[in-house]
Fold this sequence. Notes:
240 residues; alpha+beta; 5-stranded antiparallel beta sheet
Amino acid sequence: xxxxxxxxxxxxxxxxxxxxxxxxxxxxxxxxxxxxxxxxxxxxxxxxxxxxxxxxxxxxxxxxxxxxxxxxxxxxxxxxxxxxxxxxxxxxxxxxxxxxxxxxxxxxxxxxxxxxxxxxxxxxxxxxxxxxxxxxxxxxxxxxxxxxxxxxxxxxxxxxxxxxxxxxxxxxxxxxxxxxxxxxxxxxxxxxxxxxxxxxxxxxxxxxxxxxxxxxxxxxxxxxxxxxxxxxxxxxxxxx
Length: 240
């Protein structure tokens, strides 16, 4: 309930904001709370990270739009359900930077990170479609820590030999290396682009896909609340 009350308080500041330029906003981002106080209405939750012109996946403004740039604020993390922390990402648009600048909220969404310690600042938090996705990543984390991994693990390593970094002799070694605290997205595998080899499974199973740390992707196949197969892939993250 407390988190819901905080989320309801995320409203853009009314009237002009003191943002003369993108460069000024970047300088203010060194003190995220100060930038948040300028762009958001009073009563907003504490903010501990701010990025100016960060790529968020939103489309560019249409031709003829007023001068503008984007700011992403992230609230201070707090414990969520067991094994996870959460924070809210706030995507804003600063319109007409200068004496008449205004701010507008384009999107807000709750992000999660695996782990009991809530990492602050510019640490990776990801989008999870629902509790089933978080349950799958939590179960995968437990599987990583087992002394003996007794499920089928497929691993497709597409990382070129010319790229420095660790090499994994088999799927189990790769599974132990997946940075689950850096999951950027997790949800039904049908909502993302995974190869047919990764999603091959029986009809009575659930498949949760994920992306992590830019270069890792995976599909977890679950039947009767138990992981029966993990398919992993690693490649150079875009843009290539």
